[in-house]
Design a protein that fits this description.
343 residues, alpha/beta, eight-stranded mixed β-sheet, two-stranded antiparallel sheet
Length: 343
């Protein structure tokens, strides 16, 4: 429906703010196809920083599933998302579109085949399934609001059909992003969770902390329409000590012996909501990370007085309240506030 004459423009009521912002690309590999050269799987990155950055490390926000970086920008009901709130808290932020998603171009002849399209039914099942208990109170619009659901589903596309190849691309691009921006905090959601472990494995000196919101799991899970976590925490291989040459060697090992030397001591918080079916994977993932040597812990929102949340907790009605314990955790584990450039 078009705006009626005299109605307030959509930007009214949004506070003006002064920030620095820009964008860049993490280029993909050059590949030959039918005698021509193409780029495979670039990653789009947009950054934003407050006038005065007061936190020592930027936050890299990595979207989940078949979605794109826009999930961090605004909520479905029009409020500022976690990306803006982090900037307001003094962080520089980098929001990426994973290879093959959003503004990161793809062609199946170059990137590889894609999985099934993302359906309305799939979206409802993941984010706002029927809830006879009435415990999931924070979803930002009524499940039968057709216009709102159209807007929500519009951002979704298919995932690459080969989960291991997709995670390898994600980890490579994230690692090279860190090479460019320096030490950073990774903030992942859902299907991007394994990419966080893999990026930290590849650049252990550049990942200072990971916050993973309901990451894909549990270890060795077979995710319908997506793929299998063949190496336990990821579909692509992680570095173990002693080395494990095959996925079967990882699966058959005593979990207590699966050391992850490049994640040793790394602060990791797994954020879960109380009304999400995906939250059950949190404790097994934490156990695997702790066994590997990481300083991982569960950040269960009800333990911090935040209730009613499902898998989309980063943009539900109480998204600001859900972010508060994350900000507190970062204050404790990712360095004290220090204005960049100050002595």
């Amino acid at each position: 429906m078009s705006r009626q004459d005299g109605a307030r423009p959509f930007w009214d009521g949004v506070p003006a703010r002064t920030v620095r912002r820009g964008h860049f690309w993490i280029a993909g590999e050059r590949v030959l196809h039918d005698g021509r050269t193409y780029q495979r799987g670039p990653m789009f990155a947009e950054w934003e920083a407050p006038e005065r950055v007061t936190r020592p490390y930027p936050v890299v926000l990595v979207h989940g599933g078949g979605f794109q970086g826009t999930e961090w920008l605004d909520t479905p009901d029009g409020r500022p998302g976690w990306a803006q709130r982090l900037v307001e808290a003094g962080y520089a932020t980098v929001v990426v579109d994973r290879p093959g998603h959003g503004r990161s171009p793809l062609h199946t002849a170059i990137v590889g085949p894609m999985g099934p399209p993302f359906s309305y039914e799939g979206g409802r099942q993941i984010y706002c399934p029927p809830d006879p208990s009435g415990a999931h109170t924070q979803w930002p619009f009524a499940p039968d609001d057709a216009d709102a659901m159209d807007q929500f589903i519009a951002g979704y596309g298919p995932l690459p059909a080969d989960l291991a190849v997709s995670e390898d691309m994600d980890a490579d691009r994230l690692a090279r992003l860190l090479d460019r921006i320096g030490p950073a905090i990774l903030l992942t959601h859902s299907a991007s969770g394994p990419g966080g472990w893999l990026a930290a494995d590849r650049r252990p000196g550049l990942v200072r902390a990971i916050v993973s919101v309901e990451p894909m799991g549990p270890p060795f899970a077979d995710i319908p329409n997506i793929g299998r976590l063949l190496w336990g925490l990821a579909a692509a291989p992680l570095t173990h000590d002693p080395p494990r040459a095959t996925p079967d060697a990882v699966r058959d090992a005593d979990p207590a012996t699966l050391r992850l030397p490049n994640l040793a001591g790394l602060p990791i918080a797994l954020v879960t909501g109380d009304s999400s079916a995906f939250a059950a994977a949190g404790l097994p993932i934490v156990a695997a990370l702790v066994a590997g040597g990481a300083a991982a812990e569960l950040l269960h929102l009800p333990d911090h007085g935040v209730t009613g949340n499902g898998h989309g907790l980063i943009y539900e009605k109480n998204s600001d309240a859900a972010l508060a314990p994350v900000l507190d955790w970062l204050d404790r584990h990712a360095g004290a506030a220090a204005t960049q450039g100050d002595a």
